[in-house]
Amino acid sequence: MNAITQVDKIAAPEDFFTGRYHLTIAGKLIETKDSFDVINPAIGEVFAQAPSATAEQLDEAIVAAKVAFKSWSVLTYDERQSYLERYADALQEHRDDLVRLLTLEQGKPLETMAAPEVDQAISYIRQIAARRLPVEIVEENDSHVVELHHVPLGVVGGITPWNFPVLLSLWKIAPALITGNTFVLKPTPFTPLTALRFGEIAQRVLPAGVLSVVTGADSLGPQLTNHPDIAKISFTGSTETGKHVLRSAAGTVKRVTLELGGNDAAIVLPDTDYKVIIPQLFWGAFGHQGQWCVGIKRLYVHRSLHAGFVEAFVEYAKTVKVGNGLDPEVGVGPVQNKMQFEKLKTFLADIKADGQTIVLGGDIDESQSGYFFPITIVDNPPEDSKIVQEEQFGPILPILVYDEVDEAVDRANASIYGLGGSVWGRDIKAAVAVANRIEAGMVWVNEIHTQGVDVPFGGVKQSGIGTEHGRIGRELFTNPKTVFIHKIQK
Ligand code: NAD
User: Tell me, what's the pLDDT at 1?
Assistant: First the structure.
C-alpha cells in the first residue's frame, strides 16, 4: 500500500536533500513501494532513490487532472496568473536547493549552468503568467460578428529529457497552465529529482490535480501518449522517441508538440574576426557538456581562416577544466549518464578507426568513476563520417573546412535535422543573407542561444513539430473556437 503524506511537511529546506521524494497525485504526496536508483554522474554512484509509479498511479494522476480541469479552466487569466506567481515565489524560496540538486543529478556546473537554468525557469513562469490570449473579433459587420476564442485543451502530458530537467519542464507547464490546461509531467528516469521537488512545492500553492509529477520506468511514456484522457503531448527528447510519440498520439488524435534532436551547424564566414568569437563558439558547442539540443554540433570554417582558427580554438579549450560541477573552477562537467557516455565512446572509436585527426582530447581516463569525457576536437573529418552526420550530444566537436559559402550552406542543410544554426561574419548583411538560407527553426547571427518568452523556439524537418514560446507556442496549448453571433434579435 502506498503511503500518502501531508503536503505541508514535505520538502522543507532541511529535508530537501535527505528526505524522500514523492509522486504528486491529486494534490497529495505519494510515497511508493518501489523506487529506482538515481546516479550522480560526477561520481558514478547512486545517491538517491526516486519513486517508481505504477500504471494505476499514472492513471490516478490523469483522472485528478481531468477533474481539476473543470474548475481550473474556468478561472480568469488574472486568477491563474496569481496562482503561477505564488508558484514562482515558492520555487524562489528553494532556489539554492534546486540549483544544487540539479548539479547533483545532472552533472552541470553549479554556478555557470545550474543556477541560470533554475533562475530562468522561475523568471519564465512569471513572464508567461502575464501573457494573455484574449478573445479576438475576426469578422464583423452591422448584423453579425465572429469571435475567435482560444480554449484550453484539457489535460496535457509532458515528457522531458535529462539535459535541462528544470527549464524544459517549466517551458511546458507554465504556458499550459496559464491557458487553462492541467498538467501531468513524466520526467526522464535519469534526472527525476528536481522535477519531483518542484512537483511537491507546487502542491502547496496550486489547486489539487492542476500539476502532477509522476516518475518511473520509460514505459510510463507510452501510457501517457496512448491515454484517451490526455489531450496533448508536449514532448522534448530524441527524434527516435518523438516518432514513437507521434505514432502513439495518432490513436486518439492528440495534439503534439515535438522538440527533437538536432545537428546544428555554425558557419564562420571568411571575413570573421574569429579570435573575438571563439569563447562564444566554444561554449555554444561545449556548454552543458555539449548536451544541448541547439548546441553547435558541426563547425564550418572557411579555408582561409582554418589553421589559425583551430589553433586558437584549441588554446581556448585547454583553459577549460573538466570535472565535478560542484567545483567552481569546472567549466565542463560529466556526461549525464552511462548510456550516453558509452554512446560517445562509439563516436570516438569511429574517429580513431577512420584515422581522423584529433587535435585535442580523445583519451578517456577509465580510472575515474564519474562519466568524464575529455573535451575532444576533431579536425576536418570527412563529411560522411559518423561525427558529422549523427547527433553526438556530448563534448566532441568536428571543425570542418569549406571553400565556398554556397558549399557551406549546402553541407549545413544536408541533414535530416533542422533545429538551429548560426552564422558568423563582420558583414552583417552578408551573414544574414546566409542565415536566411539555413533550413532550421532558429538561426543566430553573431550571437548564439539567445531566446525569449515571446520568441518562438522549435525545429523543422525531423527536429520537431510545433513550437514553444511566443504567442504561437501558447496557442498550441489551446484549440481555436469560432463563435458566430447574429447581432439582430429576431
Ligand atoms: P529520449 O528520447 O531518450 O527520452 C526523452 C523522454 O522520453 C524521457 O522522459 C523518456 O523516458 C521518454 N520515453 C522513452 N521512450 C518513450 C516512448 N516510447 N514513449 C514516450 N516517451 C518515451 O531523449 P533523451 O536522451 O532524454 O534526450 C536527448 C535528446 O533530446 C537529444 O536528441 C536532444 O537533441 C533532444 N532534445 C531536444 C530539445 C529541443 O528543444 N528540440 C531539447 C533538449 C533535448
Answer: 38
CA 241 to ligand 1 centroid distance, Å: 6
What CATH number corresponds to the domain at position 454?
A: 3.40.309.10
Closest CA to 290 of 229, 202, 378: 378
Q: What is the pTM of this model?
A: 0.96
Kindly state whether residues 291 and 411 are assigned to the same domain: yes
Same domain, 65 and 195: yes
30 falls within a domain: yes
Q: Per-residue confidence at 3, pLDDT binned at 50, 70, 90? A: low
Of 15 and 356, the one with more pLDDT: 356
61 and 138 in a common domain: yes
Question: Which ligand 1 atom sits closest to the C-alpha of 240?
Answer: 2
- Annotated active-site residue 293? The verdict is yes
Domain enclosing residue 147, as ranges: 5-260+464-482
Cell numbers 535530416 correspond to: 416
Shared-domain flag, residues 114 and 228: yes
Same domain, 215 and 92: yes
| 238 touches ligand 1 (CB under 6 Å) | yes
> Using CA positions, which residue lies closest to atom 9 of ligand 1?
188
Report yes or no: 38 and 193 within 8 Å, Cβ to Cβ. Answer: yes
Give how many domains the chain has, as a whole number. Answer: 2
What crossing angle do the helices spanning 95-106 and 77-93 adopt, rounded to 10°?
70
Kindly report the protein residue whose alpha carbon is nearest to atom 16 of ligand 1: 221
pLDDT confidence bin for 14, thresholds 50/70/90:
low
342 flagged as catalytic: no
Q: How many helices (H) and strands (E) does the chain have?
A: 15, 25
> What is the rounded distance in angstroms from the CA atom of residue 255 to the CA atom of residue 277?
40
The response to whether residue 245 sits with its C-beta less than 6 Å from ligand 1 reads yes
The answer to whether position 184 is within a domain reads yes
pLDDT tens by residue, 232-276: 999 999 999 999 999 999 999 999 999 999 999 999 999 999 999
Atom of ligand 1 nearest to the CA of 186: 9
CA 291–ligand 1 middle distance (angstroms): 12
Cα 206 to Cα 215: distance, rounded to the nearest angstrom: 20
Q: Is the CB of 213 under 6 A from ligand 1?
A: no
* Structural domain includes residue 489: no
The C-alpha atoms of residue 101 and residue 95 are separated, in whole angstroms, by: 10
CA of 192 to the centre of ligand 1 (A): 13
Same domain, 94 and 201: yes
User: Quick one: average pLDDT of 356-362?
Assistant: 98
**Which of 106, 162, 218, 468 gets mutated to test ligand 1 (max ligand atoms within 8 A of its CB)?**
218
288 located within any domain: yes
